[in-house]
C-alpha cells in the first residue's frame, strides 16, 4: 500500500509526459504476456519422441506411417513434415520452407512494439526532463526561494528520465530473450528440414516412392 502511494506520488511529480509513458508500459506488458503464452503453447506442443519415430519411418521408406503421425499431431515440426508430404508431387522442400517461414513470422509477431518502446521510452523521459527543467528555471529572479524551487523542480523533472530508462530496461531483457528463442527455432527448423530431405532422398534411392498425401477433411 505504501509502495503504491509512493509510485503514484512520483508519477504525478514526473509531469504530463508520464501518461504516454504509462501507455507504453502497458503496451509492452501486453506484448510480453502474449509472447510468453505463445512460446509456452509452442513448447507444450513439441513431442520429441514423435520426431525420432517419424524420422526413423522416413528413413525406412514407411511414408504412410510417417504421414499418420504428422496428420494427427499439432507439433510444429510434424506439421512442417505434413506440409511437405502434401506437396510431394511438386516440391516438398519448398512447402516445408514456406511453413517454417510462416511459423518464424508468428514467433516474431508484435516484437516491433517492444523495439519501439525500448527506443521511445527514454526519449520521452528525456523530453519530460527538459520541459521540467525549463519550467523550473522560470522561477529564477522571482524571489529568494528561487534556488530551492529550481533544485526541487530539477529533481522532479529527472523522474521522467528515470521512468523512461526503467521501462526501456524492462523491455530490453524479454525482447532479447524472445529474439534468441526465434533464432534457436530457426536453427532447429533448418536442421529438421534438411534431415527430412536427406531421409526421403535415401528412401527413394532404395526404391521407396513418396506419393502426395491429402489432408483429412474435417
What does this structure look like?
Helices cover 80% and strands 0% of the residues. It is an all-alpha fold and 218 residues long. The chain has one domain. The longest helix is centred in the last third of the chain and has 60 residues, at 146-205. It is rod-shaped.
In short:
With 218 residues, this protein is mostly helical. 80% of the residues lie in helices and 0% in strands.
Strand content: under 5%
Low-pLDDT residue intervals, each spanning 5 or more residues: none
Main sheet summary = none
Structural class, by secondary structure, is: mainly alpha
- How many β-strand runs? 0
The SSE order reads HHHHHHHH
Shape: rod-shaped
Mean pLDDT over the full residue set: 86
Compute the separation of the termini in Å: 54 Å
What attributes characterize this protein structure?
0% strand, 218 residues, single chain, mainly alpha, 8 helices, rod-shaped, 80% helix
List the helices and strands and how they pair.
Blueprint lengths: L1 H12 L4 H28 L2 H12 L3 H9 L4 H11 L5 H16 L3 H26 L9 H60 L13
Amino acid at each position: 500500500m505504501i509502495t503504491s502511494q509512493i509510485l503514484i506520488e512520483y508519477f504525478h511529480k514526473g509531469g504530463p509526459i508520464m501518461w504516454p509513458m504509462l501507455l507504453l508500459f502497458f503496451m509492452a506488458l501486453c506484448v510480453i504476456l502474449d509472447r510468453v503464452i505463445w512460446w509456452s503453447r509452442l513448447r507444450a506442443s513439441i513431442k520429441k519422441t514423435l520426431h525420432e519415430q517419424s524420422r526413423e519411418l522416413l528413413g525406412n521408406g514407411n511414408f504412410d506411417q510417417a504421414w499418420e503421425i504428422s496428420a494427427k499431431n499439432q507439433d510444429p515440426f510434424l506439421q512442417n513434415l505434413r506440409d511437405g508430404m502434401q506437396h510431394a508431387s511438386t516440391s516438398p522442400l519448398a512447402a516445408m520452407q514456406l511453413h517454417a517461414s510462416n511459423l518464424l513470422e508468428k514467433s516474431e509477431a508484435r516484437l516491433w512494439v517492444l523495439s519501439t518502446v525500448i527506443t521511445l521510452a527514454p526519449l520521452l523521459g528525456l523530453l519530460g526532463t527538459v520541459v521540467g527543467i525549463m519550467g523550473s528555471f522560470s522561477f529564477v529572479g522571482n524571489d529568494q526561494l528561487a534556488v530551492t524551487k529550481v533544485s526541487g523542480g530539477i529533481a522532479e523533472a529527472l523522474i521522467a528520465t528515470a521512468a523512461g530508462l526503467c521501462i526501456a530496461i524492462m523491455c530490453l531483457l524479454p525482447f532479447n530473450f524472445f529474439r534468441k528463442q526465434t533464432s534457436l527455432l530457426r536453427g532447429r527448423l533448418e536442421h529438421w528440414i534438411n534431415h527430412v530431405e536427406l531421409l526421403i532422398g535415401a528412401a527413394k534411392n532404395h526404391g521407396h516412392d513418396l506419393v502426395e498425401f491429402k489432408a483429412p477433411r474435417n
